[in-house]
Amino acid sequence: MEKAPGGTSVGVDDPYDHVTRCDFVTSEGKCRWAREHGRHDPEFANARSADDFRCPAAIAPDDADADTEPEWDWADCPHFRSRNHDRECVRCGLEERRMAHSDERPLLEEHHLSYRDGGDELSHEITVFLCRWCHAKIHQSWARLDDDVNPDPEAIAQREQRRSREESELGFESAADRYDDS
């Protein structure tokens, strides 16, 4: 199993199994990284530009019906990044409830699935969201990302407390009712 720099588990054998698409690939299968950040790697950007910025690891919608395989795997791209943007735990499905103007600890935490071999620096950024209860279980090396589990009872209680406060804030109380001096 893949390990974090501190030696704890990340909960998967192959981080790329949990990737659907690179964050820099457009819906047309083009590489946005080469167009927007190419000055950081001119050789890569020039190669992508010569190929009309086509991403060799993605299949464009036009090619979706064809039985063609991409030229590269996601791991072959030097500028690959995949961050999960769904605000729910990928392990248990707990949804985030954030309170505006609150410093409370979030229910969800970003979890890195890949690290550079032998160092603290990240290689390809592959992240998912985990509730803090699942996150702790995975780093304690006794849980896996693809376990079929329900949210922890404490996690549900925290979410419901936040939802109750959120609903009470949405309630309407007129100024006359709020400041009634009688």
From TrEMBL:
<feature type="region of interest" description="Disordered">
    <location>
        <begin position="145"/>
        <end position="182"/>
    </location>
</feature>
<feature type="compositionally biased region" description="Basic and acidic residues">
    <location>
        <begin position="157"/>
        <end position="168"/>
    </location>
</feature>
<dbReference type="Pfam" id="PF23382">
    <property type="entry name" value="DUF7097"/>
</dbReference>
<protein>
    <submittedName>
        <fullName>Uncharacterized protein</fullName>
    </submittedName>
</protein>
<dbReference type="InterPro" id="IPR055523">
    <property type="entry name" value="DUF7097"/>
</dbReference>
